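User: Hand in any protein.

Assistant:
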Amino acid sequence: MGFCSYKLLFSYVFLMLVLFKCCYGFGTFGFDIHHRYSDAVKQILAVDGLPEKGSVEYYVAMVHRDRIIRGRGLAAANDQTPLTFYDDDETHRISDLGFLHYANVSVGTPSNSYLVALDTGSDLFWIPCDCTSCLKRIQLTQYELDFNIYNPNASTTSASVPCSSSLCENQCSSASSSCPYQILYLSNGTSSSGYLVEDVLHMCTDTNQSKVVDARVTIGCGQVQTGSFLDGAAPNGLFGLGMDNISVPSTLASNGLVQYSFSMCFGSSGIGRISFGDEGSSDQAETPFNLGQTHPTYNITITQINVGGNAADLEFTAIFDSGTSFTYLNDPAYTLITTSFNSLAKDTRYSSDSSLPFEFCYALSSSQESFEYPIVNMTMKGGDQFAVTEPISFLALQTSSQSVQYLYCLAVVKSGDVNIIGQNFMTGYRIVFNRQKMTLGWTASNCVLMLLTPPLYP
């Protein structure tokens, strides 16, 4: 029977910020990423307004954020998403939790920096632009933070994308007019709309002798943002990492700057990395993407679930989505994994509580020094194993007697639509999204060594 033993040093779900730095490697562009609530980020800037990490409110807010955001790109083409980060590698926490990963990117000539969310579930790279409705500043604890607003007329390298362009999929009044875009969300009245432009994204190579590369990319000039965007969800834009031709990885590859592949490493310490052009290593596990969808996503097939050493054959598809905090499964997959986990859990299941975001939670006594929980593994199409390194999350529940009840929960939420493998299941892996080979690859990694030594690419 497979169990994971756990000393009670409480760890948490990892939200990461991306620091724009040129690091190591060959033929790639990369960013360091940091846990949104890691000690490194806290030392940069303390901002009030977020639930305490590990509290019930924290996880409720995260699940609520997922449900608001998950609509993008999953039901209709041209859906996008939200959040923040700032110049000189400063990081900021905002009361609306919004997105998970952020990058400080430089655009235009002369260049300006924009704090953008990164998401594998979205395609278009858009930023607030000559906007009539957008968030231009946010009040922090000690001062007010102003965000840069893009002005294509102020950039000498900017050019309008005409309706005649192959990238323009929307109806236009004439072939010579600028191509419009509109991104609608399935909940909360959230949207972004404007028109498309081209400009330079300033990057640098992942080599010991890094050099600056100006990559021409398509950008959404976001004139009108609505819903949660106005509450701070993505006040300075979104960096699309999806499969569409308009996405940043697609554009970098079509311009011959990198291979059509990128990786995201999710470290359990809260430190990680994203690297454009990374094709992974020769010893990584892989599974093919599912093709033929109306709106292609990083969708794969799972053929078996193994909980605590007990395997059950069950074939279903799921999207690997860096923009979702937790893992969301439909039945029968949800019932299979949760009931199997529950039957093998050695600790007492906590009584049902509607305030908890997860259904299967287990109580830990104040004197308990360690515990074991069932190991969760998945077999992917092709036969390679994906061992979930962090299937659980810890919660601190304030009881009516003003004492604290510590729980651990299987961090899987029942879905009503698509299956999503969220960031919690990806923790501890370098995940390679390879459009060149149309495969998802993964290698166990703590991600820290990737920041200290040049990675070796085959």
Notes: DSSP finds six helices and 29 strands in the chain. Residues 4 and 453 are 30 Å apart (CA to CA). The first strand starts at residue 3 and ends at 7. Residues 56-69 form the longest helix (14 residues).
